[in-house]
Request: fold
Amino acid sequence: MAVISLQDVRKVYAGNVEAVKGVSLTIENGEFIVLVGPSGCGKSTLLRMVAGLEEITSGTVQIGGSVVNKVEPADRDIAMVFQNYALYPHMSVYDNMAYGLKNRGMDRDEIANRVRIAANKLEIAEYLDRKPRALSGGQRQRVAMGRAIVREPKAFLFDEPLSNLDAKLRVQMRLEIKKLQKSLGTTSLYVTHDQLEAMTLADRLVVLNGGVVEQIGTPIEVYEKPQSTFVASFIGSPAMNFLPVTNVGTHWRLQQGSGLRVHFDTDVNELTLGVRPEDFTIANGPQSDEALSASLLVSAVELVGAESFVHGTLGETGPEIIVRVHGKAGYVAGETLALTASYEKLHFFDTKTGKCLKVSPSRAIA
Reply:
C-alpha cells in the first residue's frame, strides 16, 4: 500500500489545449478513489499521468512519498487494469497472469503460489490452462485483474475496466472489485463516466469537469450536498431539477407563472433552485408553510419497475421537471398534481457561477 499525492498537476497538449488544470489530490493508504465525469473531462489523462503513460506538464505526482514524475511506468510499482483487458491471446490464463513476474526473474514456485492464490480469489482457477478466446468477457476481466493482483503493487489503477461488459455483468463485477479491493487493502484509483458505478465503488468521489475538480467527497456527501449545478446534474439519475427564480424586490419568485415565492437573505441577483426528483412529494392534503408548493401539469409517466417517473411542467408554462414516486403511479397526461418539497431538501445555486449558495429560506408563499 502507498499514499498517492498529486500537487497542482497539469497537462497541456500541443496548441495550448489544457486537458488537466491544476489538480491536487491525496489518496490515503488503502483508499478507493473514483475519478468520475463526462467524456473529455480529463479523468483518463490524469490516471495515465499517475501511471507514467502521459508526461506531466507541471506539478508533482508522489507514490509512497517519492516523486515519480521522471520514473518509468515499470518502476512505479503500480498495476493497471485496462478497459480492453490487454491479454496476450497466444498465452494461457496462467501465463498471462505470470508474465510480469517471470520478467522480474521471480522464483518459479513463488510465481505459481501467487497465481494460484489470485486465481482462487477470482474464481478462475479452473480456467488457468485456457486461452483468452475461450473465456467470456467477465472471465477475461478477472484474468486482467489477476495479472494486477499477483504483482502485489503499491497501488491499482483502473481505466474504465467494466465498459465492455453487459449491464448485468457490470453489476456483478463492480461488487467483486469492491470486495476484492477491501480484502487486499490496496490503494486504488478508478476512472469511470458511469455515476452509478462511481457511487457504489468509491470511498471518495472526485468529480471532474473540463479538467477541473468540481468536488471531492464521499458518495453520499456529493449526492446530498452538491457544490455546483454540474455536480448536481451529473450525480443522480434522474438528474436534479433546476428551476430559475427571479428577485422581485421583496422576495424571490419562481419564473414562468408557477405562483411560487421564496424569501431568504442573499446578495445574488440570479438564482437557480435545485430539487431532486425524489424530494418532491405529491400532496394529498393542506400544504405546510414549511415547504415549497407548486402545481405539476403531467405530460408523461414512466414505469421503471419498483418506481415511476412523472414528467410534467410547473403550471401550464413553467419549466419541465421529473418527480420520482414509489410503485406504479396512476397518473395520466393532462392531470394536475399538487407538489411540495421540504426546505431542508432544497438546493440554491448562483445562476452565473453555478456554485452552491449557503442560504436560509424563511418560508414559501403560494
